[in-house]
Design brief:
Elements lengths: L21 H11 L2 H6 L3 E2 L3 H4 L9 H7 L8 E3 L10 H18 L7 E4 L16 H5 L4 H16 L5 E2 L23 H16 L13 E5 L18 H8 L1 H10 L3 E4 L3 E2 L2 E2 L4 H11 L5 E3 L23 H11 L14 H6 L5 H17 L10 H7 L3 H14 L1 E5 L13 E5 L21 H9 L4 E5 L20 H15 L4 E7 L26 H9 L5 E6 L7 H6 L2 E4 L7 H9 L54 E3 L3 E2 L3 E2 L5 E9 L5 E11 L10 E10 L4 E8 L1 H4 L1 E2 L5 E2 L3 E8 L7 E8 L1
Helix pairs in contact: 1-14, 5-15, 7-8, 7-16, 8-10, 17-21, 18-19
Length: about 775
């Protein structure tokens, strides 16, 4: 154990010398650290800030901090400073992080700075930050460049307030829509999720030099396979083969490591083959570090190390008898830091003193975290400018990107007789009906943006008195409906039916009825405790919404439905009766402005579904890239999805020409290119997403009927034609064969191109590999 007598106490200590290499500074700092100081770097505080760092008003309390950290050992991270009480401004948060940072640098023995981590799922979760669409909506843009820009803004807004690490992006593959966290994901397809994940990491980290103080560390989560839990229940076991794990759930993580150099990874709550991820040495060491070469650090999911033993308010894995044993398992597996509070890892010093953990293991765990504190410049220039934070947070130019992201996310699912877009000149009265018409629609992990436009706000502003707009709530989904409220209270059915009668009266003289329905923050959300649930056994719209739809249809008026929800819903009745349906997911602060522009044709929707819509909960799983023996059929029902992955209509039409292969015969280590001409055959400018799917026709192990292996989004004016070229590389064709070798097997491959995963929307040709 290092002693304090080894410390260089002057300002000229080697680790404080910014002219030296990070490696030299880091080696020196580690040589000076005691076990207690190393252990302190492996924990953070979140809610405990209120007890250790802040007063009742959420302001820094120096005396409380001195009492709480009197030993001078320091601290690894401080979680979510933007969550302090009273919804503080960007200027106030920047001041707060400066004060906390100054305290740890001046009142810990070695002056090691802290990292502030934040939630940035779809923008910094803070007051007056920019709120973008949820990831499931952003995935529907099929536009990685836009995703990179959006997360670049999120990084900037976090960094100017003092943040250094985003607990984002989520690159889980969402294969069970019962799961409440689908909205946090980029959908069901490994290739799409991989492209979006790489873009997000590049947006957060840039070139990872961090020299301009505009970027933050990204955190891939949740490692691994979190998106297909047993029975759709959050944190449940994931029952998956090694081949499926490597081919479906792991690729987005590897993409982000190889292509974007992601710096942090969060282990997942679930277990795989009986081993919880936070204790899985094969996953976190053998695979992640040794096989893939990951050199960053692994953070725990909140309270997950505690759950290796037993956490009474939710569950436990019972592979450790107590927190002390859980800490040993997690550290040996490779979890560098416990979040959000010191729980199991408060036993680290005792574990080392007993010989249960070697101090050298602590060095391995602490080293990468200290490296990135040096790289972020925190030892040399850790403070931020509160005035700049106020100026940049929620800036007008950021709003423009939020609007673009929202507009590219909305997916047109149905448009009978081209009822959309509506002609304002032909309307005298519009009825805007539904529980989502006049409420905030941001989804989970959201802050409070400077600007927010509700559905009703957007419609009224767009119409601007040109005709009458009448509103009725129609029914309630749940009472309150806030994501943060633990208890979910369903609306009273009889009260809802009274509201439906009121809606019928409101709509009786209207020329058109526009519905805003679907879900709310409570009907699909992270289930983090037994009193805060969010997974469901039913995909139907909650409450009496189907009755509301039926009542509106029975008026005989045209019905246009906008869906707001965090995951696919079973909307068979709506699809049968509504004239038009648009899937909006949650599209952020610009919701109202965006839906109004789409409704009246100022914007042409071009989103595509990043996840399949099952016909019912009994149709799960519904993902498109299934094996050949799956989806054979049901008695009395169709086995296909109601809407397939990649599907999305437009106000214009497109034609896709014949497929041309640059080389139709290649060797296993060669690449080729496939190209098609795409023409806008309609009368409006619009976007189309050209999608490339591949199937290995005969293989040593079963392969999916098709897999997305490329896509390109294009903008076309009426009558315009563009040639789209997509590359087919060995990785487009490779898989884990009968011997679990990753290889390209010789044979024939179906090359399919179209505008959705549905076979009826695809054209095909043959590629031969010799």
């Amino acid at each position: 154990m290092n002693s304090e007598s080894n410390v260089t106490t002057t300002d000229t200590a080697i680790y404080k010398d910014s002219s030296l290499s990070i490696q030299k500074r880091l080696d020196h700092l580690l040589s000076l650290m005691t076990v207690e100081e190393k252990a302190a770097q492996m924990v953070g505080v979140w809610n405990e800030k209120a007890d250790t760092l802040l007063n009742a008003n959420g302001e820094f309390d120096l005396e409380k901090a001195k009492d709480s950290y009197s030993e001078g050992h320091g601290l690894g991270q401080v979680g979510r400073p933007n969550e302090v009480v009273n919804g503080k401004s960007a200027r106030e948060i920047a001041t707060l992080t400066n004060e906390i940072q100054k305290f740890f640098m001046e009142h810990s023995r070695l002056g090691i700075p802290v990292i502030f981590h934040e939630e940035c799922l779809h923008g910094l979760a803070a007051t007056n930050a920019t709120s973008f669409p949820q990831p499931i909506a952003m995935a529907g843009t099929f536009n990685p460049d836009l995703i990179e820009s959006m997360y670049g803004i999120s990084a900037l807004e976090a960094r100017v307030r003092g943040g250094h690490q985003a607990l984002t992006p989520v690159v889980d593959i969402a294969r069970d829509p019962r799961w409440g966290r689908v909205e946090e994901t980029f959908g069901e397809d490994p290739y799409l999720v991989g492209r979006m994940g790489v873009a997000a990491v590049k947006g957060f980290q840039g070139d990872a030099s961090f020299s301009d103080k505009k970027r933050v560390l990204a955190t891939l989560k949740h490692f691994a396979a979190h998106g297909d839990p047993e029975a759709g229940m959050n944190c449940a076991p994931v029952n998956v083969s090694m081949r499926e794990l490597r081919e479906v759930f792991l690729p987005p993580f590897k993409n982000a490591i190889d292509e974007a150099g992601v710096i942090s990874v969060m282990a997942s709550y679930n277990e795989i083959d009986g081993v919880p991820s936070h204790a899985n040495k094969w996953l976190l060491q053998d695979l992640l570090r040794d096989e893939w070469g990951f050199e960053g650090f692994v953070v725990s999911d909140y309270y997950a190390i505690w759950e290796l033993s037993d956490r009474p308010d939710t569950h436990g894995h019972h592979i450790a008898k107590d927190g002390k044993e859980a800490a040993k398992l997690a550290i040996e597996a490779g979890v560098n830091i416990e979040l959000p509070e010191p729980n199991a890892y408060k036993n680290i010093v005792e574990l080392v003193s007993e010989g249960a953990l070697k101090e050298s293991r602590l060095d391995e765990m602490v080293r990468p975290m200290l490296y990135w504190k040096f790289k972020l410049g925190l030892f040399d220039d850790p403070f931020v400018d509160p005035e700049e934070a106020e100026k940049i947070s929620g800036a007008e130019e950021h709003r423009d990107v939020a609007k673009q992201a929202a507009s590219e996310s909305v997916t047109l699912l149905k448009n009978n007789n081209d009822i959309l877009p509506l002609d304002k000149n032909k309307i005298k009265k519009m009825a805007v009906i539904g529980p989502n018409v006049n409420r905030s629609l941001l989804g989970g992990y959201s802050g409070r943006p400077v600007h927010e436009s509700t559905f009703l706000d957007g419609i009224k502003e767009k119409v601007n008195g040109q005709f009458e707009v009448v509103y009725s709530e129609g029914c309630k989904i749940t009472i309150g409906g806030s994501w943060e409220e633990d208890e979910v209270v369903l609306a009273d059915p009889e009260e809802n039916r009274k509201l439906i009668e009121e809606a019928k009266e409101t709509a009786k003289d209207a020329d058109v009825i526009v519905l805003a329905i679907g879900g709310n923050d409570q009907t699909s959300r992270e289930s983090w405790a037994l009193n805060h649930m969010g997974d469901r056994t039913n995909l139907e719209m909650v409450g009496q919404q189907n009755e509301l739809v039926q009542a509106m249809v029975e008026t005989g008026k045209p019905v246009v439905a906008f869906l707001f929800n965090g995951k696919p819903l079973a909307i068979n009745d709506l699809n049968q009766h509504a004239d038009a349906i648009l899937e909006c997911w949650y599209i952020g602060q610009e919701t109202g402005n965006t839906v109004a522009d789409i409704l009246f044709g100022d914007l042409n929707p071009g989103g595509k579904l990043p996840i399949s819509f099952p016909r019912s909960v009994g149709h799960i799983p519904a993902f498109y890239n299934h094996k050949p023996s799956a989806r054979r059929g049901y008695l009395f029902d169709d086995a296909s999805p109601l809407f397939p992955f990649g599907f999305g209509l437009s106000y214009t039409t497109f034609s896709i020409g014949d497929i041309k292969l640059n080389k139709s015969v290649i060797n296993p280590d060669e690449s080729t290119e496939v190209s098609v001409d795409v023409t806008n055959t309609g009368s409006r400018e619009g976007t189309e997403v050209v999608q490339l799917y591949i199937r290995d026709k005969v293989s040593s192990v079963t392969r999916p009927v098709k897999e997305l292996k490329g896509f390109k989004k294009i903008w076309l004016k009426p009558g315009e034609t563009k040639t789209v070229t997509l590359e087919i590389t060995p990785s487009s064709l490779a898989f884990y064969d009968i011997h679990m070798d990753y290889t390209v097997e010789p044979g024939e491959f179906d090359i399919m191109i179209g505008n959705s995963s549905d076979s009826n929307d695809l054209k095909s040709t043959m590629l031969t590999v010799n």
